[in-house]
Amino acid sequence: MTDVPLLSRSALDRAEELRTDSAALRAGWAEALLLRVNHRGQVRLDGGELILDPATELGPEPVSGAVFLGRRDGRHLWAVRVAALSGELGDLRFVGHLFDDSSAGLLTTAIAILNWHDSAGFSAVDGAATTPTISGWSRHSTSTGHEEFPRTDPAVICLVHDGADRVLLARNGNWPERRFSVLAGFVEAGESLESCVVREIGEEVGLAVSDVRYLGSQPWPFPRSVMIGFSAVGDPDAPLAFTDGEIAEAHWFGRDEVRAALEAGDWTSDTDARLLVPGSVSIARGMLEAWAKA
């Protein structure tokens, strides 16, 4: 990796020490700013800039369901899930490249924590309803008081190359023709990240890989993951087998072809080339860009 992945950029001061300081949060509420996020993960924009509202629009003090994200320029920042939004809307996956480091970190964090709350309404331990605490950074069981914290699901993403000038790219069966990316998969219980790389590549395309190396990581709050990037070496002459049903096709592409695809844009490009690659908000593109420059 030659550049920090876009969603890993964050100048957000999380101010963790304030999450349990009710007095400080109430005092900061009068000047606090609020980010509203709908259930599709969309937010309101003004010319590509995030719209933040006065938090006091929710009430005179912090309300249950709002999540304290941190502070910026001395002002507290909160997020809340809303049923609907109007005006110019944007989805992090498509407009993340427009944001500065502060807004990128703010929105990535907001979407991840709100997605966790959406699925954590009942305790995984006793099945009882849960209520948010610590200004949105935990939930308590209403039956036993058991505390649960936000989940982040680790997933590996791997650029498989031949040690020279070819890279293996695959198309998921749900993707349109010509849209390819590097391979990825979730880490299983009791599994190291490196072991997951080897297993996932074997399951998805039937290829044995070696020389697994860490490249970088990126939060991916869809719904609440972190993508952990690796490279690995595979044999381009080995047969491929799509055994788990996820991959529709995979091919080895030359460095020049990848460079051309990067120059043409991303999956939305109107080029008729046989290869389209992910957009800049994905760590996959950063991995491909670094490999193409090597």
From TrEMBL:
Pfam families: NUDIX, NUDIX-like. It catalyses: a 5'-end NAD(+)-phospho-ribonucleoside in mRNA + H2O = a 5'-end phospho-adenosine-phospho-ribonucleoside in mRNA + beta-nicotinamide D-ribonucleotide + 2 H(+). InterPro entries: NAD-cap_RNA_hydrolase_NudC, NADH_PPase-like_N, NudC-like_C, NUDIX_hydrolase-like_dom_sf, NUDIX_hydrolase_CS, NUDIX_hydrolase_dom. Its EC number is 3.6.1.22. GO terms for molecular function: hydrolase activity. It comes from the Bacteria. PROSITE patterns: NUDIX, NUDIX_BOX. It is an enzyme of class 3 (hydrolase). Coiled coil: none annotated. Keywords: Hydrolase, Magnesium, Metal-binding, NAD. Residues 150-275 form the Nudix hydrolase domain. Its cofactor is Mg(2+); Zn(2+). Belongs to the Nudix hydrolase family. NudC subfamily. NCBIfam families: PRK00241.1. PANTHER family: NAD-CAPPED RNA HYDROLASE NUDT12 (PTHR42904:SF6), NUDIX HYDROLASE, NUDC SUBFAMILY (PTHR42904). This is NAD(+) diphosphatase. The lineage of its organism: Bacteria, Bacillati, Actinomycetota, Actinomycetes, Mycobacteriales. The gene is nudC.
